[in-house]
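It is worth pausing here to work through a concrete case rather than discussing structure prediction in the abstract. The textbook approach is simple: state the sequence, then state the predicted structure, then interpret. We follow exactly that order.
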Amino acid sequence: MTDHPTLSGTPLLDRVNSPEDLKRLSRDQLPVLAHELRDEITRVCSVGGLHLASSLGATDLIVALHYVLNSPRDRILFDVGHQAYAHKILTGRRSLMHTVKKEGGLSGFTKVSESPHDAITVGHASTSLANALGMAMARDALGQDYKVAAVIGDGSLTGGMALAALNTIGDMGRKMLIILNDNEMSISENVGAISKFMRGLQVQKWYQEGEGAGKKAVQAVSKPLADFMSRAKSSTRHFFDPASVNPFAAMGVRYVGPVDGHNVQELVWLIERLVDLDGPTILHVATTKGKGLSYAEADPIYWHGPGKFNPATGEFSASQTHSWSAAFGDAVTELAAQDPRTFVITPAMREGSGLVGYSKAHPHRYLDVGIAEEVAVTAAAGMALQGLRPVVAIYSSFLQRAYDQVLHDVAIEHLNVTCAIDRAGIVGADGATHNGVFDLSFLRSIPGVRIGLPKDAAELRGMLKYAQTHDGPYAIRYPRGNTAPVPEGTWPDLKWGTWERVKAGEDVVILAGGKALEYAQKAVADLEGVGVVNARFVKPLDEEMLRDVARTARTLITVEDNTVIGGFGSAVLEFLNAEGLRTPVRVLGIPDEFQEHATVESVHARTGIDAQAIRTVLAELGVDVPFGV
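Step two, the predicted structure:
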């Protein structure tokens, strides 16, 4: 990869290749640097598919943190990590920013193996505070004196893991600084009581009119903070009375704020003083997602991760494709109109899961629980116990967080809960933290959970209709990407647990479902004697058809976009073993290692499940395979 040249429009930024370079600037130069950083981030993100709005909103804060702290000795943690593009640029990776999310390039999140300045490898929300607690405990246990600062958004604070960690942080009382980056957003708008509390802070009389009682209360806690307040009469920095109902103070965590998250000089002044206070401190900063880019500020949801756009104008080409998420959203919206028991739950993924239309059509049968996957599944269990037919719309990699809830709260009592699992399989650019390649394995291990893999939007609708009209827990997994739309009212009559033969052949038979079926069909389109079965149900298997093909075929090949450990191939082998059938089976799937970011097609090729890889295996088995696909 070639280095990207610096731009003449960023003279200050051109001088900064490390935190040490940053510290050589005067404080008066910091707002200019932040402006140049935002310009650079916008240019980098204009190629499409990168996290723009969140990175723009956190730029001033990141400049201030690196100006005061000494990374990598001091530990700066970013929750989720998608807002850390300024951090990457300031820590020597500017010349590689054009490789973000590309194969062999930088991660879209922070990653320990990428840079010593990245304190944690992350991609999921609500993990930073527990990590920060662990680092502070390790520091004190080893007699060291580095500083720990964690940046967490108000969206991530809706996650139970963050709140549980905050409770322990207050109890342990270790020195650390927590920056609450409050932009009222995660990807969608934030929801829940905590979000309402944050909004309430900003309309209180003490926040609007001054310091009065807050100053007196803080003076009893810390003289440096009281001194600061006396200097800040004309600023927008105000302090909340810790003797009142502030939940952070109730947990034993000093609270400061809200303050202007875009006044970099004031942030520097604050962080310098707060980071050395004993015990844990929360600095609550109010920021604007998309800051500095008018069109991103106006629509931060779209500009969270936009497609390719013109950075000068914000012009972009609207997608003409129909995603799997949209196919699900269309289907469940239509189904809910037919059945008043249908109720959809999402953990902060309304846009990503294709539920904008549903949330408007059926607002009273829609629940966004925030970044709380466990709550989503258990709330669904509660609904099912009272007669509803809830559908949990959730990404595969996020469902990992709710495994126990599926097992304990749903499956034991065989409740009528359907999990619509989006982003199943390799997702590509977001990499190892977001690849959904474990759901087949962990769901297969739970008694009574039925699993389907639709090949297209029609099968998705048929499976959803079946699940909503039959008892028990169901899981329907579908990939990231596009699928052809189908007409409204399309409800194929599918019997759960039945496969279909899509190509005749008795020599070698390929068993595949979902995305893998597409590869299998492409691989054998010109081959005689090779059969293909749409193995669209993994649990239960179509035992009758599997028994039949195992008895007549010379060899079976299973293909899946899931780890080879415990997945579809394992299910086939388990059945054949139980039946005493000795038919050889080649299992193709994701190997037992984490897959780094690249295009979906590239990862499928290197893991050996794409059409060319299948043809290679067929050739190894003695099938006459012409060169190429």
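Step three, interpretation. Residues 1-7, 198-218, 228-243 have pLDDT under 50 and may be disordered. Residues 30-45 form the longest helix (16 residues).
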